[in-house]
Glycerate 2-kinase
Amino acid sequence: MSLDPRALLRELFDTAIVAAHPAQTLARHLPRVHGGRTIVIGAGKAAGAMAEVVEAHWKDEQVDGLVVAPYGYGANCQRIEVVEAAHPVPDDAGERVARRVLELVGNLTEDDRVIFLLSGGGSALLALPAEGISLDDKRALNKALLKSGAAIDEMNCVRKHLSAIKGGRLARACWPASVYTYAISDVPGDEATVIASGPTVGDPTTSADALAILRRYAIDTPAHIRAWLEDPRSETVKPGDDCLSRSYFTLIATPQQALDAAAAKARAAGLEVLILGDLEGESRDVAKVHAGIARQVRKHGQPLAAPCLVLSGGETTVTVRGKGHGGRNAEFLLSLTAALKGEPGIWALAGDTDGIDGMENNAGALMSPCSYKRALAAGLNPLHELDDNNGYGFFAELGDLVVTGPTRTNVNDFRAILILESAEQ
């Protein structure tokens, strides 16, 4: 088999992104507009692109609204206002737009409907703190959670209980209007309560859970925040609450759809494919598991034979201990490089489908069988760079960053391990 591993891996990544884009997935789910008012609101990395689809689908209908997307993820809409705010650490713009969203839905009737366009990133973008908590408080806790190694469901549990809009509270504000949430999942298991902290669905977690998470990761928590989390008013809207009886939730894109699209492309190129699905855990540890699978394929032809592709998604975590730069995908590949030590015939790409790995300007990076040797020649020790959490710096030095720019969608991480036959390096 003759193929260009770099080109193929990038093509597979691009295929996964396109499969999860709102332009491919949203329109067929939208309801008919009839009677009453239709207000469109939204938040997330795909919110701007979703708003464009709504305007194109309802070009002759009276719709308006307001959505918020990260800086650089906006849209050219005529009737739906698109505001940009900070992600992953919230800023004043996110707080202001959250207040405006609540004002928009504050006096609706049973004849009205709310279209809520939701995707990953919404937690930071709709940043309206609960009573007695400041935006600075939320920012500080958010930064600490991001560095702690906490999983996304744990981070969002804390966020929900410190919010005036998440954890079902937006649905309560919209009552008695009908609420139609159209969501792109960026979380393992596609749990509605976790995607952007579930503003329109019931939340089974408790304030006690949030306190336990803060203790688990030894996060310094001011006394007034602990007091709020011990106050019954901090509880979120629970499943079965009457205010959720007219709230409907639909997934329009999932990580599995993106992996399936990439797998189909790989099979068309003559590769066997193994999809591991959504994975969680420390990026460096998940990489070691992938390295073990790749070696098993190369040495023993199990669980499938080369040439083949191993795909996985989900959201790994990074416990930040060093002073380097890089997100979880660069960290994954750096750990993979250190584990494989230039094993021949193994290539890999890892990237975030939103186009931003952590807080850097790359989506991810690419590892070749030569990466380990090239790094040593450049004076880079992969293990030392891993200790410093410097995945971005490592792959930037090798010229192997993957840069897409904002993709305006987000189904989280994409990891592809390409394993070729021994003659192909």
